Amino acid sequence: MQNVSKRTDWLVRWLVPIALILFACAAIYVSTTFKKMPPILKRGIQPSDFPQLVCGLIIALSLLMAWFDPVRMQERVVTKTWLTIALMAGFALLVCIDLFIALGCFAAALSALWGERRIGVLAGVGLLVPLAIFFLFDQAFQVRFPRGLLTNMWYG
Amino acid sequence: MEAFWAGLAALGDPYLILLLVCATLGGVVIGALPGLNATTGAALLLPFTLTMEPVAAISILTAIYCSATFAGAITAILINTPGTSASATTCLDGYPMAIRGEAGRALGLAVVSSTIGGVFSVFVLMLSAPLLARAAYSFAPPEYFALTVFGLSMLVSIGGGSPIRNLIAGALGILLATVGTDLLTSVKRFTFDSPHLYEGIGFVPVMIGVFGISELIAQATRLDEKRETITMKAIKLPSREDYRRVWKTILRSSGIGTFIGILPAEGATVASMIGYNEAKRWSKNPEEFGKGAPEGIAGSEAANNSATGGAMVPTLALGIPGSPTAAVILAGLLVHGLRPGPTMFTDQANFAFAIFWSMLFVNLLFLAIGLYGAKLFARVTLIPTQVLWPCVFMFSIVGAYALAQSMFDVWVALIAGVVGYFMRVFGFSVVPLAIGLILGGILEQRLGQSMVMLDEKWWLMTTRPICLVFFILTALALFGPMIFKNFKRNHPDNEASA
């Protein structure tokens, strides 16, 4: 178990700075495709100069971090955390049908995943709260939500 | 002086008073709930303030800031879980007092110390912000650039992350701020031909993501934590003996907290730690600290609440956030089209003073709420995580959507939430990311203006005295702790003891 932990530590120590450096390099590459302004219009600096400066700083700091301030995992990512993130992905898919159906399903599923077993509470979280939020925003804040299965019924 | 009274007159609006009362109650609930804090609360509330008048909108955000910072003490004392990180030091003496049956006395001390600290800092804010703004009136773009660099350098010491990681997170925030159409040249950057990105990445969805949604994901690992609630018969005002014992501590911590708050990017958490340590250092009975010393509660609470007013000084006078929550308030000012800085005290002086007066009102209001409602608010800690966080998620998503009524912002909030969670897992604070995102655009704009002004000779900035002072301060902020540590290690006394 300790070996696994050591291996994870070693991986994290190097993977995080490498990922940051690769990200910064990719950003520098993209920034080279920005339009160059003629000297008279460039207003002090070229549009690509500042992002490249920041990316250079990220690379330098990542190198410093790799050697002098190794990254360690602060907490173990437990199964429930992965499932919570998976639920969010499910929410993102359900949004295509209707935002409030997605919100209600996500809220009830999250509540159940985290240990709530009372049907009344699950119904309240998954049904009443999204409805209350919908009417609060629709009526009080005049927010028009994206059209979907349920919102179409309300908006007509 | 006219603006001073005009600001007070704005408080005569019953609608504003009602909003402030509701926001204070909401802030106390947010602060009392473990996991939620003033920054998350303000970030979640920001989209709802967009339809309001600027005075009402910013007053609400500052009300949340002040009241949530205070309310962290309720859970710190009753369940040994600080509602906000700024109340972590309150646990050290508040909970032992509660265990020995003095929960009411501990909460009374916390309420009174918080109120005195908060009121003190608002008076300092009223006096110093216009003076600071007047001093900054002579600033040209190079001075503003140097000031913003100094503000960003203070990121090294916030959020609990290591200095290098804080700087990386800040730099990532600045890089995110470059996405969209460049304001100086109209060139599109990192937009990948997506019209959603032409106007850049909004502050609000990113803040909702990194402060709200990432905290939700983090809560999944804390589901098994057990909390024991201390019962409390009634909250009571500190006795004359208590006041005699803590008044010096309250005044000292109020001064410390206000000063720490004024420093860019430093917030209530740092203030409460220093306030607590100083209370212990000056105490006649330091051995009582950690076992239920009233000075411990007073030192921590007066300092963390006075930091709120202090943090608003650079936020309003210079446009540099004094704390993470002040960064959200700064985002609110920008979203409402207000430009914090010296002109705020000339062109929008009535607005600025209305904010000061509303902060003062809120500080007095939570004295009443704290004394008469703490017992009730302590019950919000009984709301199950399984109910609370799904509701927070729904508000986060709808809040992110409501701002521009765009589903793109919902995706940004979700992605920011997941990225923010993994940043926390790897020991990066999300606060520098948010501050970098807010200040990134301003930094680049000021660099561009400086380059035009100095005919592209950037090194001429070092010939300007104010710039030089800020650059030296920046170097001290970045390398000072390292030099000090090295100096301490090589000091003859330390060598001898080694």
In summary, what is this structure?
The complex is a heterodimer of chains A (156) and B (498). Chain A is mainly α and 156 residues long. Chain A contains six helices and no strands.
List the helices and strands and how they pair.
The complex is a heterodimer of chains A (156) and B (498).
Chain A: H1 2-31, H2 49-68, H3 79-94, H4 99-113, H5 119-140, H6 149-155
Chain B: H1 2-10, H2 14-32, H3 38-45, H4 54-79, H5 88-99, H6 103-136, H7 141-153, H8 163-177, E1 180-181, E2 188-189, H9 203-219, H10 240-262, H11 268-282, H12 294-318, H13 324-335, H14 349-377, H15 385-404, H16 407-425, H17 431-453, H18 465-490, H19 492-497
Antiparallel strand pairs in B: 1-2
Helix pairs in contact in B: 1-14, 2-4, 2-14, 3-4, 3-9, 3-13, 4-5, 4-6, 4-12, 4-13, 4-14, 5-6, 5-12, 6-10, 6-12, 6-14, 7-17, 7-18, 8-17, 9-15, 9-16, 9-17, 10-11, 10-12, 11-12, 12-13, 13-17, 15-16
Can you walk through the features of this model?
The complex is a heterodimer of chains A (156) and B (498). In chain A, 71% of the residues lie in helices and 0% in strands. By secondary structure, chain A is mainly α. Chain A is flat and about 60 Å long. With 498 residues, chain B is mainly α. Chain B has one domain (2-459). Chain B is 70% helix and 1% strand. Chain B has 19 helices and two strands. Chain B has helices spanning 2-10, 14-32, 38-45, 54-79, 88-99, 103-136, 141-153, 163-177, 203-219, 240-262, 268-282, 294-318, 324-335, 349-377, 385-404, 407-425, 431-453, 465-490, 492-497; strands spanning 180-181, 188-189. Chain B is globular and about 70 Å long. The chains are: A mainly alpha (156), B mainly alpha (498). Chains A and B meet through α1, α2, α3, α4 and α5 of A and α8, β2, α9, α15 and α16 of B.
